[in-house]
Amino acid sequence: MTLLRCHELTVRFGGLVALDRLDLELAAGEILGLIGPNGSGKTTFFNAITGIYRSAAGRATFGEHELTAMSPQRIYGVGITRTFQRSRLALPLSVFDNIMIGNHRLLHHGLAFNLFRRRALRAELEAHVDKARALVATFSKPLAARLFEPVATFSMIDRRRIEICRALVSEPRLLLLDEPSAGMTHEETRELMDDILAARERLPGLAIVIIEHEMNVIERVSQRCAVLNYGRKIAEGTYAEVAAAREVQVAYLGTE
Amino acid sequence: MKKEGVPAFAGTTIPGLAGIAAVAVYSYFFLHAESQAAVLGLVAAAVIGVPVLGRLGWLSRVGASLAQHRAAGRIGIAVALLIVIALFRSEHFAMLMLASVLFYTIACLGLTVQFGYAGVVNFAGAAFFGVGGYTSAVLGAQLPHIAVLVIGGLLAALLGSVLILPILRTRGHYAALITVAFGILFRTFIEVNDALGGPQGLQVKGMNLFGWDLNTPIGEWSFYANYVLVALALAALAFVLVRRLERSWVGLNLDAVRLDETACAVFGIDVARWKILAFTIGNFLAGVAGAAYSMMTGFVAPNSFTFADSLIMVSIILLGGVGSLWGVALAAAIVLVLPEKLQALQEYRFLLYAVLVIIILLARPQGLIPRRARDYFA
């Protein structure tokens, strides 16, 4: 079943075409690796389908929803979440608070409820603390024990874990990971990928698009790859097919 | 077996209650001090003593004890305040100061919701305070005063809604400039408006709550003591309201809006909705505080609600610790009482504020009582 379908999706910044008539399909439950040199439009693609950038032409549909016409808030509401290349956590807030930002869809935000129905609020809080703790524990047990400490006190890998938990807690249908390995060692990256795959077991049908420069990560986790260069898709297929394609080698290594 | 160096009372209520008692005793001597030498001595003692106590670890012991025994701390603070009120009940000046501190605390709690939580700067705090004051002046003779207080708050919130569109469309310095402009506009508007008394201002009737005329003293007490009691009740209400707001999903949304609007959007948080809510609640509190304060002082004039007064409110927020509720109360006390006691400084009070803010930003940017991470279950 096709979950995400992009048809000639185009993003322009003035005269620069950052994303050029991109056609891309993604099935429910699939893991797609998105690769390409710096500036090839990978993050632009994320920003376009999460509503941060307006697309200049083309369409992107998610189930029956037309993403190009929706606000970021509504896109989150239909089940697309993401992480950022440079972590965008709220550093002074606790781990729990940061994860609850990702849980926005499932919380009660009425002013009267929050101010005066304290007993009901407390019950809701306790349920979500348990949920957050269980989710974090699939990534790291020690982290789950420090749920109410400010994020600023945690290491890089823990911050990545928190960011991924924030993106997973609302049980999305599509998760966009923007370079989860950035700033981490190989060992840490491997561990993190294992945890992501383990968390995915509990969310059947979750599709993932992962942007990554570490080719061994892409090779290990993705079922299919798409390669971008100058905003264009230049190759698509399994990792082995893509790695063998001449255009890809030219894009990465240049020609003689 | 006890570890060496850890006193037996560690972890009990004793350090917290001792801390509260120390602050109360200090306040007593400070309010009591008549000669400039005594006042200066007390200021010097605090300026030197507090950092020394911090180094010795006593302050963190007091803080830990209060964090652990919240109910005892609250009762301790209430008892200490009531004792100070009882001791100074017949002195006009001390009672007036105490009530003023409490009314400013309410207004600054409002600013804390705006700036401390949602990150919406407001350099027109005194203008919204003034909207409340002029509401009291105009409606005080006609309506029950409890209604006037609420209407004062509502009008401040309503007038603030004029600013919502420009504030949502700007950020940082530009949003700040809009509020600066509004504050100056408000004052100028009042000054040239004869119906509102022009530059001379208007008289305001003393507060009368359900038949209790606050301007009639109880026995030998100063009539300002009545206002202290009302201010204390209102401040406690505002405190509980803001605290509950902070420890809820709404408070989390406000913090998220302040810290990263892009991340908010990606996780479905409606940035505009929460900014509007915070701005409105904050202005409401400032309006209520202004309405009550003006009933106490008995008159309102444009000169009481200038840009400089707004700056005082902002400096209270910075001095206390952005987003910290106890910090606001402490800083309001310092900022309002210190220049009144140090007569030599009266002329230079704004210089004093400027120096205080610069020192705090350099030496302790998180404020006198830094805000702690949210604890929903406290």
Describe the structure.
The complex is a heterodimer of chains A (256) and B (378). Chain A starts with a strand and ends with a helix. Chain A has 256 residues and is α/β, with parallel strands linked by helices. Chain A contains eleven helices and ten strands. By secondary structure, chain B is an all-alpha fold. In chain B, strands 1-4 form a two-stranded antiparallel sheet. In chain B, strand 2 and strand 3 form a beta hairpin. In chain B, helix 5 crosses helix 14 and helix 6 runs antiparallel to helix 7. Chain B is globular, with a radius of gyration of 21 Å. At the A-B interface, helix 2, helix 3, helix 4 and helix 5 of A face helix 9, helix 10 and helix 11 of B.
Provide the fold topology.
The complex is a heterodimer of chains A (256) and B (378).
Chain A: E1 2-13, E2 16-27, E3 31-35, H1 42-49, E4 57-62, E5 65-66, H2 72-77, E6 80-82, H3 95-102, H4 111-116, H5 118-139, H6 141-144, H7 156-168, E7 174-178, H8 186-201, E8 207-211, H9 215-221, E9 224-229, E10 232-237, H10 239-244, H11 246-253
Parallel strand pairs in A: 3-8, 3-9, 6-7, 7-8
Antiparallel strand pairs in A: 1-2, 1-4, 4-5, 9-10
Helix pairs in contact in A: 3-7, 5-7, 7-8
Chain B: H1 14-32, H2 36-55, H3 58-68, H4 70-87, H5 92-117, H6 125-139, H7 145-169, H8 172-191, E1 202-203, E2 208-209, E3 212-213, H9 223-246, H10 249-259, H11 261-266, H12 271-297, E4 299-300, H13 307-320, H14 325-341, H15 349-363
Antiparallel strand pairs in B: 1-4, 2-3
Helix pairs in contact in B: 1-3, 1-4, 5-9, 5-10, 5-12, 5-13, 5-14, 6-7, 6-8, 6-12, 7-8, 7-12, 9-12, 10-12, 13-14, 13-15
